[in-house]
Fold this protein.
Amino acid sequence: MPVFNLDDQNGLFHLYSPPLSPTGKTFVFFNALTGDTGMWEGAIGDGLRENGHGTLSFNFRGQADSPFNPQTPITEDVIVSDACRLLAEIGPGNVILVGLSIGGLFAARAWLKDIQGVDCDGLVLINTLRRDGPRLSWINDAMVRCVEVGGLDLLKDLFAPLLFNQDWQADNRENFLNDTAYVPLGENTGHYNLLKNAGETDWDVPYENLTLPVLVITGLQDHVFFDRDDVDALSARLPDVERVNMANAAHLLPAERPAEFTELLLKFAGRL
């Protein structure tokens, strides 16, 4: 199992495929908090690799197969520093950072931190742009309370209709709200650690300093995080931005529309 050891207790599970030519890009994927490499390694990763590009997907501390110290809060700073260390170790070329939800913020922070020895050609933010405030704080606290009471199953049952588009809901409804007991998520588990510390994330990103080309992809059926005015205002602060609004997708659009999403990445890479 490919794990980059950060120290004797912490590590990052990762999957790396280099590009097939010196001109190929390497797409580096940053998960959402409850995500894992499986989001990227199916149709999306295959589609990119079939077109000669490389991919690097990895799981944060506490996500699947990434060991962690339960006594260490897995905060924004920890995740960003870990990502920078992994990228410096692997040293991929012609990098395009791709982040889903809060993963986009981590990707942006990693670039702003100046990843040693790694040249980044572009950044893709997927349903990332949002402003901190009472609403976002409430949502974060509610998610933590959900897993304390009923684990990830309760979280998915309550939030899936708001995070996925209607087509996905129709196809997957039978997999939710099953007649089984909810099990609380233990405080020493990785996902609890990640969710609990997400409330400390600093969403006040200096967007004006993101001078690399940025692709902002927004799923318009996202009924949790999408606020049109906020996305418009924050996008306008990016010096070199391209925007794509997907009316047929919601928050987890790579899972909902993998073929269309892959095509967007390929087109973005072709323009860089």
Remarks:
- The chain has one domain: 3-132+202-271.
- The CA atoms of residues 10 and 67 lie 5 Å apart.
- Residues 3-132+202-271 form a domain with the Rossmann fold fold (CATH 3.40.50.1820).
